[in-house]
Each structure stands twice: as structure tokens, then as C-alpha cells.
């Protein structure tokens, strides 16, 4: 990746975008559009279609008709696999264009966006494509005069609702297994980050995916998202986003056809640092990067830092030093390590958390405010609070911004109590040289993932999912496919 290539793409004109329904780009039936504002400078640079219920229903009807036709679900596995592999190839061929367009839309620093968005999406598509001709049904152990076959069958129409922080990566975690299993999909991207997903769907068509297999409808969650979730014709709904929306989706399911709902919601992930950590500098650097990258807009952001008492002050000083050294600015400038906050609303919400933390007695060690306001964009300083009370707003609730809450603990028991002392259970990490303690912490921390002496970067081969109010079900790994297959029994008298 070269800066000159990024600069060539950064102001490329993006024409107004339509929905993708049954393989065709179509405007909203009432012609409504939403302006797309770049968080880099706060300026609009294109428009997307603001869908209504009629547009969403047309997409669902297309997905249903296409599923029932068998054109995708009954396609020979090697052909379906070849299409998905071609799709991954097309995504990779356009990786820089996709990454830059995504950054203009949501503000993630380009280095991270390039790897985590098109790079990760292509890898995810390939991973599930490869599974297509390697997953078998089962023959049950039965009496000799009976045959029990367990078929894995695609379920039908999958509704996918994704957020704005990593639209392609999170989108691919759901789309690739859903499509590999032979289902059809209707995708509703976040209104502030739809552009790359529209292009991803277009590339699927170019790779040979039949029209109607992968439809995209853009617009407001409260309009098209709600129509999708309330539909009687959607069999499964998979979602990543806020707890508030997740709760609504469960309600919509109960009010409609009891569609299965899988939720990946928020987190308040703890990073637990013991005094016997194997590498002080690595731990401190990781503590900073794992909350501040993408301005803290990462589901698994390590937003709580719990440090053993006797190393607390020294460790905080090192983390603060790393935080201060991070260069915040134009996310399309490769020299900047932290880009923009996605929207002005999100920035305001971050600042409200800071103000409340101050009134609750937390000590501000660095940051705390918006920065680079002269650019018109939305940027925030990496922010560290110490002395954060266990029951305070900042310790308990997800900011989804670059704000780290630090506290201390005496011993392993207190560390576990504090680590588990929120409603969430998505991610976590332990820093220690003691192997037995590492395993005890893995067992005792209630979270979908416990990192040991590292943070993030877990490959597609391992699952990601939350416990407690961080959600249910798993993305990534072969286990993700369980959401997209039905088990059907054939019980045969011989
Ligand atoms: P965030 O705080 O990350 O924006 P949201 O849960 O609001 O989280 O958004 C995640 C996704 O959910 C977005 O695509 C958004 O449009 C969608 N969404 C928001 N409200 C609803 C709703 N009432 N029904 C369905 N989808 C919704």
C-alpha cells in the first residue's frame, strides 16, 4: 500500500448508490435518499438510497423466490464453491479501492481498514467457500433394521444487519457462511457505512452468484431494519450492533414468525495485568492499542484495564505515554495511527461519557476531548481515566470510543470478581507468566474469548461470540455454520 495510490483514490467521485435487489440496482420506490457524510471532514460526498418497507419487502420476496427455486441451494457444491472463491479474488483485486471508500465512509485508519476490511472479508469468504465440499451429513447408530440419516440443509432466507465499525469484516463473518450453506440473504448495512457492502454484493454478482441470492437494501434501521426483522418470510436474523437494537430484534421475532435471532452485542472487555506479566512494554503497548485503534470503535475493544496494585502506577504511566504518542488525524494519511470517530453523534456520546466520569470521581490522566475540530471532521484524543469505580457509568457501560477505564486489584480473586463484574462477556485478556494462573483465568473469566499475553488478531479458525448481555451464537470458525444449516432427520425402516 502506497500513500500516492491512496491519494489518487481519496477524492474519487462516488455516484449516488441504489439498492441491489434481484441483481439490479434500483432506487427506493419513493426515490428518497440519505446523504453520506465523511467523518474525515464532515462533508457529504455521495448519497445512498433511503429504503422504505416496500423496498425491503421486494428484496425479501426476491430472496425467497430465489431460495425456493433451488438455483443456489441445489447448485452442485463445487460450482457454488468456485463462485465464492472467484468472489474472494475480485474483492482482493479491488482491495485498496474498497478500503479507501470504506474509510471515507466510516473514518477507520487506512492501515487497519485495509487489513481488517477487504483483506479479512476475502479471507473469510475463502474459508467458508472451502468448507462447501467438506461438510458431510451423518449416519446415526441404529438397530440393524433402521437407518437414521441426519441431513444438513440450508434454512432459507437469512436477514443480516450489520454495524458501521467494520462493515465488510463483520458482514463477511455472516454472509460467507450463510451463502456457503446454500441460503439466500437480505443485507441491511448501517446507514453510515453502506458503500463497501453495496460493492461487495455487486462483486458477488460479477463472480457468478445468481441474482436474488444476495440482496442489499440501505436506509434507516428503524425503517428497513425493522421491516426485515418483522418479516414473516425471513427465517434467521443475524445481527451485530447495540444491545438496545438487539432487544428490539428479539421482540420483532416474537411478534412475527419466531425467526431465530443471533446477536453479537456490546462489550466492556477487561484486560487483566498481573505483576508477573512476561513483557511489561508489550503489555503496556497492547493495553493502549487494544482500546484506541479505530478510535475504540471495536466490539472487542479492551475498554477496562485492571492492574495488580503493586505495578499499577508504573503500568499506568507507560500506557499513558503510549496513548499520548499515538498520532490522531486524517485516516487516509498512513502516518496517522488513529483515524476519525464515525459520526458527530458518536463523538458527542463519547464526550458525554467523559463528563460523567469526571463527576463520578475518576481521574483524567490524558485526553478527554475532541481534537482537530478545524478540519470539520470528528476526532477524539485517546483518553485514560484511573480510579474508576467498579459501579460507575464508565466501568459498566460501553462507550464505543477511545476511552479507557483503569482500576486496580489485590489478588487473583479480586481480579476475577472485577473482570466479571459487568453485564457483558464478549472478550478479555490476562497477562501473566504463570501457566496455571493463565488456565484458571481462562476458566473463570466469563467471556467468549480470553486472550493470554496478547490481544486481538484471533484467526478465522476460532469462534467469536458473547455470553451474558454480549449476545448469543458465534461468528467465525466452522461453528458459525450451525446458524445457517438445519438438521433434518430421515428415519427409514429397512
Ligand atoms: P450502533 O450504536 O452501533 O449504531 P445500532 O444497533 O443502532 O448500533 O445499529 C446497528 C445496526 O442496526 C445498523 O445497521 C442499524 O441501522 C440497525 N438498526 C437500528 N435500529 C434498528 C431497528 N429498530 N430495527 C432493525 N435494525 C435496526
Architecture overview:
This protein starts with a helix and ends with a strand. Helix 2 runs parallel beside helix 8 and helix 3 crosses helix 7 (195-206). Strand 3 (33-37) and strand 4 (44-49) form a beta hairpin. The radius of gyration is 23 Å and the shape is globular. With 494 residues, it is α/β, with parallel strands linked by helices. The strands form 6 sheets. A 7-stranded mixed β-sheet has the order 14-17-18-13-12-19-20, with helices on both faces. It has 15 helices and 21 strands. The structure holds adenosine-5'-diphosphate (ADP). Residues 161-163, 188, 190-191, 221-222, 225-226, 229, 241-242, 245, 248 line the site of adenosine-5'-diphosphate.
What order do the helices and strands come in, and which of them pair?
Blueprint: H1 3-10, E1 19-21, E2 24-26, E3 33-37, E4 44-49, H2 53-69, H3 77-93, H4 95-106, H5 110-131, E5 138-140, E6 146-154, E7 157-161, H6 167-180, E8 184-188, H7 195-206, E9 214-216, H8 221-230, E10 236-240, H9 243-255, E11 260-264, E12 270-273, H10 280-292, E13 304-308, H11 312-325, H12 344-359, E14 363-366, E15 370-371, E16 379-380, E17 383-386, H13 393-396, E18 403-409, H14 412-419, E19 429-431, H15 435-444, E20 451-452, E21 485-493
Parallel strand pairs: 7-8, 7-10, 8-9, 10-11, 12-13, 12-19, 13-18, 17-18, 19-20
Antiparallel strand pairs: 1-2, 3-4, 5-6, 6-21, 14-17, 15-16
Bound molecules: adenosine-5'-diphosphate.
Amino acid at each position: 500500500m502506497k500513500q500516492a495510490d491512496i491519494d489518487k483514490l481519496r477524492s474519487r467521485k462516488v455516484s449516488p448508490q441504489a439498492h441491489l435487489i434481484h441483481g439490479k440496482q434500483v432506487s427506493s420506490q419513493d426515490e428518497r435518499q440519505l446523504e453520506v457524510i465523511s467523518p474525515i471532514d464532515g462533508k457529504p460526498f455521495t448519497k445512498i438510497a433511503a429504503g422504505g418497507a416496500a423496498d425491503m419487502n421486494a428484496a425479501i420476496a426476491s430472496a425467497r423466490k430465489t431460495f425456493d427455486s433451488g438455483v443456489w441451494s441445489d447448485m452442485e457444491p463445487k460450482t457454488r464453491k468456485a463462485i465464492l472463491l472467484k468472489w474472494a479474488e475480485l474483492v482482493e483485486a479491488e482491495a485498496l479501492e474498497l478500503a479507501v471508500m470504506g474509510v471515507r465512509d466510516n473514518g477507520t485508519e487506512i492501515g487497519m481498514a485495509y487489513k481488517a476490511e477487504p483483506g479479512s472479508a476475502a479471507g473469510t469468504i475463502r474459508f467458508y467457500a472451502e468448507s462447501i465440499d467438506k461438510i458431510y451429513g451423518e449416519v446415526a447408530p441404529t438397530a440393524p433394521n433402521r437407518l437414521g440419516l441426519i441431513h444438513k440443509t440450508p434454512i432459507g432466507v437469512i436477514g443480516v444487519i450489520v454495524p458501521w465499525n467494520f462493515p465488510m469484516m463483520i458482514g463477511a463473518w455472516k454472509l460467507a457462511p450463510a451463502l456457503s450453506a446454500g441460503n439466500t440473504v437480505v443485507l441491511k448495512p448501517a446507514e453510515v457505512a453502506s458503500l463497501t457492502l453495496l460493492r461487495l454484493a455487486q462483486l458477488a454478482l460479477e463472480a457468478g452468484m445468481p441474482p436474488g441470492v444476495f440482496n442489499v437494501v440501505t436506509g434507516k434501521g428503524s425503517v428497513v431494519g425493522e421491516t426485515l426483522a418483522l418479516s414473516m418470510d425471513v427465517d434467521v436474523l443475524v445481527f451485530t450492533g447495540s444491545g438496545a437494537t438487539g432487544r428490539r430484534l428479539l421482540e420483532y421475532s416474537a411478534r412475527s414468525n419466531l425467526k431465530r435471532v443471533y446477536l453479537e452485542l456490546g462489550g466492556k472487555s477487561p484486560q487483566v495485568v498481573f505483576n508477573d506479566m512476561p513483557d511489561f512494554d508489550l503489555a503496556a503497548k497492547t493495553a493502549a492499542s487494544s482500546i484506541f485503534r479505530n478510535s475504540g470503535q471495536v466490539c472487542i475493544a479492551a475498554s477496562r484495564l485492571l492492574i495488580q496494585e503493586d505495578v499499577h502506577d508504573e503500568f499506568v504511566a507507560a500506557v499513558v505515554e503510549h496513548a499520548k504518542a499515538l498520532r490522531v488525524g486524517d485516516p487516509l494519511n498512513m502516518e496517522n495511527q488513529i483515524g476519525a470517530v464515525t459520526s458527530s453523534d458518536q463523538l458527542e456520546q463519547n464526550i458525554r461519557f467523559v463528563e460523567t466520569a469526571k463527576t463520578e470521581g475518576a481521574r483524567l490522566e490524558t485526553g478527554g476531548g475532541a481534537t482537530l475540530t478545524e478540519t470539520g471532521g470528528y476526532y477524539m484524543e485517546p483518553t485514560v481515566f484511573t480510579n474508576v469505580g467498579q459501579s460507575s457509568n464508565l466501568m459498566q457501560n460501553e462507550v464505543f470510543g477511545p476511552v479507557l477505564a483503569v482500576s486496580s486489584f489485590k489478588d487473583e480473586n479480586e481480579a476475577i470478581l472485577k473482570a466479571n463484574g459487568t453485564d457483558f462477556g464478549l472478550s478479555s485478556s490476562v497477562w501473566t507468566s504463570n501457566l496455571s494462573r493463565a488456565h484458571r483465568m481462562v476458566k473463570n473469566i466469563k467471556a467468549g474469548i480470553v486472550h493470554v499475553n496478547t490481544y486481538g488478531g484471533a484467526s478465522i479458525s476460532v469462534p467469536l461470540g458473547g455470553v451474558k448481555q454480549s449476545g448469543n451464537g458465534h461468528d467465525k470458525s466452522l461453528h458459525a455454520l450451525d446458524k445457517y444449516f438445519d438438521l433434518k432427520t430421515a428415519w427409514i425402516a429397512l
